[in-house]
Amino acid sequence: MAEYKGIHGTKIQNYTSDPTNPIIGQVWYNETSQTMKVQAVTTAGAWATGGSLNTARSSVGSAGTQTSALSIGGQTPPFTAVTESYDGTSWTEVNDLNTGRRSLAGVGADNTSALGFGGYTTTFVSLTEEWNGTCFSEVNDLNTARQLLAGVGADNTSALGFGGNSPNKANTESWNGTCWTEVNDLNTARYGLGGAGTQTLALAFGGEAPPIVGATESWNGTCWTEVNDLGTARYYVTGCGTQTLALAFGGRSTPSNKVGNTESWNGTSWTEDSDLSTARYLLGGTGTQTAALAFGGQDPVASLGTATEEWTGAGSPTTRTITSS
Questions:
Q1: In what order do the strands lie in the sheet with 262-265?
Q2: Are residues 102 and 222 in the same domain?
Q3: How many CB atoms neighbour CB 153 within 10 A?
Q4: 198 shares a domain with 66
Q5: Measuring CA to CA, which residue among 32, 7, 12 is closest to residue 22?
Q6: Distance of CA 131 to CAs 19, 94, 95, 111, 243, Å?
Q7: d(CA 123, CA 276)
Q8: How many domains does the chain divide into?
Q9: Which range of residues forms the domain containing residue 307?
Q10: By the number of CB atoms within 10 A of the CB, which of 31, 90, 153, 272 ranks highest?
Q11: 321 found inside a domain
């Protein structure tokens, strides 16, 4: 039998803590935990428990990554201006929105640069607020006031907002860092849909038309094209990722049913993956297809949650403990 040194050219190293950037296939011994470990890749996606929100809520605006995220506003009920920042371990309350609301959209690269827009107070609103890492400032409004819309974008200067309810909308608007411009509509008007991607390359999926749909549309910067549907039609669904590598999770498949279904998009079709630990809808979510964050949400009896889950997708590097059989 070939030895580890013969294959890799080095002996197994001892460490007091796990190495910072192990390579795939690297094996080491952790002296502190007295365990042998290996850096591998995941063969299937999975959700794990993260730090809980401080304020239970649903219908939040979301921005950032799995380790640098924002949860903006939401339903408490009736609605809130509370904003929380996630550092990969725990949530911290930061400065509030200027106008508390629920069912707004959010976009942003991380927890220092974001945009929150649309939503509902006692009426549908078009308000847009920009986050600079410390506080929100009011900027130019959407052209069409609405709630339950989807938003995507790389940062707070480049965003796309689409769909929504006031009532059902197909409207799509593009943000250039200063103002919103109406562009070509979705093919299917709907609300409670999910989104992924950027201002110029986006994906829209699910929603309530009515009926509840799994319809997926791809945006090329100019117009929307219908592509393959979600495996499970649903609304109040959350999404993240890119136009070609996206994730859809949670939602309602019927007016009285919550789902934990997670589906992965490869640029052509959706594939069922591991469910959320807690089935829910109207939850916040952000990140990528391989490293996503899901937080808050509610169930059919309107129980609001603080639960946060962290997603590790198939193909992601992971450290595993080697156990004897």
A1: 238-241, 246-249, 262-265, 270-273
A2: yes
A3: 26
A4: yes
A5: 12
A6: 35, 11, 10, 9, 25
A7: 32
A8: 2
A9: 46-312
A10: 153
A11: no
Co-location of 31 and 177 in the same domain: no
Question: How many Cα neighbours within 13 Å face the side chain of 280?
Answer: 24
Residue 323 inside a domain? The answer is no
CA distance 36 to 152: 42
CA atoms within 13 A on the CB side of 129: 25
Question: What is the per-residue pLDDT across 16-25, written as a single tens digit (0 to 9) for each?
Answer: 888 887 877 7
| Residue 301 domain-assigned (yes or no) | yes
User: What's the predicted TM-score (pTM) here?
Assistant: 0.86
What are the φ/ψ torsions at residue 322 (nearest 5 degrees)? -85, 125
Give how far Cα 240 sits from Cα of 110, 141, 149, 189, 214, Å: 13, 24, 14, 20, 16
Structure tokens at 30: 């952790």
Q: Which residue has the tokens 């796309």?
A: 160
The CA-atom distances, in angstroms, between 180 and each of 107, 139, 219 are 14, 10, 17
In a domain, 325, yes or no: no
Residues 161 and 272 in one domain: yes
